[in-house]
Amino acid sequence: MDPIKSSTPSQQRLTSALSASYIDSDIRNALAVLDTRFVENTAESRRQLRVDVQANVIRSNAQIIRDFSQVAEQLTRIGTALDNMSNVVSAMRIGTSTASAEAAPILEESTQLLTQKKVIEDKQMLLSAFTDHFTVSDEDIAILTSSVEPVDDRFFNILQNVKRIHNDCQVLLASGNERVGTEIMDEMVKHLHAAFQKLFRWVQRELKTLSMESPQVNSGVRRALKVLAERPTLFQNCLDFFAEARQKILLDSFYTAMTGSAHGSTVNMDYTTKPIEVYAHDPLRYIGDMFAWLHSTAVSEQEALEVLFISQDGDERKSSIADGVQDALQNEPWAGDPAEEAIHWDPRRGLMQLVDKNLSTVAKPFKARIEQAIATQESSTLTYKLTNLINFYRLTFLRLLSSLDSDSTLLITISSLEEASLRQFYSILQDHVRSVMSDLPSAPANLSPPLFLLDSLKDLTLLMKSYETSLSPLEEDFTKILENALDPYLEGCFQLSRELESANKHIFSLNCILAVRSTLEPFTFTTTKQKKLQDQVDDLISILVEYQTGIYIHKSGLHPLMEQLKQWEEKPKIQAPFTPEQLQDASFRLDGFLSEVMDAQTSIGRLASPAFQTEVLKRAAGEFIEAFRRVEEAVMESMLDEYGEEGVRMVWPRTVEEVQVLLS
Fold this sequence. Notes:
Blueprint: H1 9-19, H2 25-37, H3 43-134, H4 138-145, H5 153-174, H6 178-208, H7 219-228, H8 232-259, H9 283-310, H10 321-331, H11 347-358, H12 360-375, H13 380-400, H14 409-437, H15 451-468, H16 475-485, H17 487-497, H18 502-520, H19 527-555, H20 558-570, H21 580-595, H22 597-600, H23 610-651, H24 656-663
Helix pairs in contact: 4-5, 5-6, 6-7, 6-8, 7-10, 8-9, 8-11, 8-12, 9-11, 9-13, 12-14, 13-14, 13-15, 15-18, 17-18, 18-19, 19-23, 20-23, 23-24
């Protein structure tokens, strides 16, 4: 019998239990439950284990049945509730369908109304924005146009807003809203015109009371002028009005400076400073003070106008009138295409034009007084100093008004005064020359320069010193003065010299030229004239050397020997050029000459320059010694063989060396 087949069920269970793994979670859980219920391991407890387990299973099943019965009851109640709810929902669905059918027209109408509301709100917002952007309130219009309202920041802000609206109308015109754009633009143009007229009148009132002497100019006036610059006509009218007011003020100021009181008034004398006319007896100071006043006033006017028109410091940059004028020129309809030609307004030139215009009324009395002072002058030196003074201020004003070129009234006036002064100067010179030439004196006995030449040189020295201190001492500019202030007197000296005899006329001419040259030497701008004089000096020195040499040759007795020597040199040398008697006679005269040589130099002693005296005598002595050497050589050549050296020395004892020592 197979042991496996004959195994009992208990054995199978045992085998199954033994084959089970103790790490199986089900077994472990079962053992854990068994451990809690199997308290005592007795036979009774082991027999009752199955019964107890089954009893517990039954009790558990019964409890489950009771719990499920409660669940079933609750599900029944829920089912009933769901049926009720389904009925209610069906009823509500029917009611809702009915209500929906009835409310559909209302909802549709409500949707349309909401859509219309949105459109209206958008239009209202657009209208509000359009109104805010393109309209001006009545209050703002009153501030802009009413003469009662002040010109303040509100005015300028509103004016700026109106200009913005006017410019933005271009957008309306471009977008097809021609009618609205045109109407608004026309309205803004009216407001702008009224505003600029109000601003124009206000600026005129302010300029009438504006004090240019104040270091701080009203910023409101600057801002108003900057805005007004956008209308060139109104702006120019304001400038003309301002210039007219300044002309009256400056003219009164000029008369006050001249006389101590305003024009046409004998009151309000200013005793703190002396009037300029107090110094009318001193033309140099009188004219200098007038020019100093004019220059000081022009500079002050320039500085004040710079503050008013050009200053761009800090926040004032926004109020630069120059910028406003430039913008106005660029925006002019006839300005052309900016891309083709840039239109530029020079603020500096415009400012200096205004300065020149403000002082134009002063120019007439200013010129009349100076012309009168010049016309009464009889001194050439003083007149020339006045000319240099006027020239100095002409160059000063030329730098100040350099941007105006030749369009300046002041520059034209000062230039005409300089020309008048020069004419008077040359007229005085010519009158004096005519006076001297009409009654020329005789040359002084000592052959010194005549008094009229010395006087003219004194005047010329003063002229040259004055010219040297001028701003542009150029040599060519002084040439004409030399031609009028020197050459006629020098020519008069030459005319006097023609009346003298022999060397005296050359010595007199040389003394006059040397006096002139010594006067010119300190001044570099007379170099050309000095060179011409030096050429004349050289010629006269040569003439005097020739003259003095002739005296030496004649008084020494060499002259007949020189004539015979000349003939002997031209003919074949057949016989001696000199006879012993001629040589003895010549030697006797030579000894007398050498002992009285100082007497032969008397005429040269009247030369004014000792250096030239020495030069003339030295050169004359040199030429005389050379002539003596020629004679001695001829004597030795022709007589040495016949008479021997002793015989020759008996008739011709002097040697070249001895004569040279005695003459030196």
